[in-house]
Amino acid sequence: MKIRLSPGFIVLLFLFISHSITAQTLQGRVIDKITREPLEMAVVSDSKTQHHALTDQNGRFTLRDVPLPAELEVSIIGFVPRKLQVSSAGGPLTVELDRGALNLKEVTITSAGAPGISAFHTLSKIDLNLLPVRSAQDLLRLVPGLFIAQHQGGGKAEQIFIRGFDADHGTDVNITVDGMPVNMVSH
Description:
- By secondary structure, this protein is of the alpha+beta class.
- Helix content is 18%, strand content 30%.
- The longest helix is centred in the N-terminal third of the chain and has 16 residues, at 7-22.
- It starts with 6 loop residues before the first helix and ends in a 6-residue tail after the last strand.
- The relative contact order is 0.11.
């Protein structure tokens, strides 16, 4: 029995095999060039396929089904975006980013989110980078829905309001650091 293959089928088979060989899974890490610290929530995207991945808390990412050679773009708020060419998937990539001016045009909105990723996380990091923290009260002012005010001068804890409701200093609000309460006078 002879099997006769049409030329069109052979071309399709060749294209499928060549795509399977060149489509790779790229893994790597995004770090700050100066401090060498991992950058969480950086966007790594492939310009050809528009596939993208977000880095985890260790700066690691996995980008699947990327045809090689690939042109990747790596960006995160507060750093200079970087484009790089990847010709082979030899080993994990290490992408170093330089700090740059904070530009909110750099915000990338994506529907694919990793578990535990929250929009407030990024905005809090932006607030902490822009506003100097001189005291614990400065940190509390960044909490969404929490308002604090000094109503009696020094020597007494701030008055705390949660979404417009007056909260008692030690009974309605419990603030702890490493399990130790810190918002009562005795602490």
